[in-house]
């Protein structure tokens, strides 16, 4: 594994040196661990390079991208590892040391009505990852265990458990469980997935202002013959529309002084397979996409969400692309199908536990934006409908934020 990562880094450096004029920096991902500086310190990142010196279709952009990185993250498990039913309390918590690498080719076709952009871009890629899963650094820390919303008795406080203890307390072992395949059979997991998609780009995005539409259809799949701990597919349709209501620029510098932008996103996803690993469950879970809820919760086959934002961008005092921003949001989403890696329907669980299938939240994000790649700040969300599984009974949720979702 170390040889593979070393080779990827050397290849990126060599590519940058040989084709420096055609190579551009690519920012991949940024994440945090909530136990490290309250989540305000980045603990995982991926970066890379995009080579744009080829031209397979005259006048249209061809890109070859290589992205790599890693770090340290906390993950939370919201299904009973023995039965697969949703957990209303005592979720599993563990830490993951991760290394990731991503190779991607993109090809544009046609001219968008936005100057300088291709109308349609198709892409295909490969993503690999190595994960070393360990007990959480928060083992022994107190947390709430009650679940008032479902009418169950309040259980008071409990403590975060070691991963092995958590599995055994739920009637199974980490090695033999079928709900979390990437946690079975050992501490480490090496997994691969392939993906392809198409993006329609009619969005004039100037960071402090937006005008137009952006739509993308993506298929991601991890075939069983490439993986021991993963076998699944995931189809996502994502569409964003935006318009600038007001924009004021400094006459002397041309930089933004103040702007108001409205954006709306619709996201639909269907995910299924015999072995859907945790890393694939997290981003498609409805709890991840309705702000204020918990990443990994409400992880079923089908999710649909609408995110509505009103963004107020402040002045760019020194550098284009660095500015304060306040974002008022309103999210609503719905989940259906079966819980992942089970044949347990969301409808039956909603009826049994009194869970809402419609989630809704509102709130505000106060942040500093850095070139629209990441946004460091604070998020305050109020849960209008649906149950907070991680912090039972709480409706007001605060936390660090590192990026806008669309």
Describe this entry's structure for a reader:
This protein has 406 residues and is mainly β. It has one domain (2-401): Porin. It has helices at 2-18, 163-169, 278-284, 286-289, 346-353, and strands at residues 23-32, 42-51, 62-77, 92-111, 118-135, 142-144, 157-159, 188-205, 210-222, 231-249, 256-275, 300-313, 322-339, 358-370, 374-385, 396-401. The strands form two sheets. It has a 14-stranded antiparallel β-sheet, sandwiched between helices. The chain has a two-stranded antiparallel ribbon with strand order 6-7. It is globular, with a radius of gyration of 22 Å. Residues 1-7 and 148-153 have low confidence and may be disordered.
In what order do the strands lie side by side in the largest sheet? 1-2-3-4-5-8-9-10-11-12-13-14-15-16
The largest sheet, given as strand count, sense and whether it forms a barrel, is:
14 strands, antiparallel
Q: What value does the average pLDDT take?
A: 90
What Rg do the Cα atoms give?
22 Å
* Secondary structure tally: strands: 16
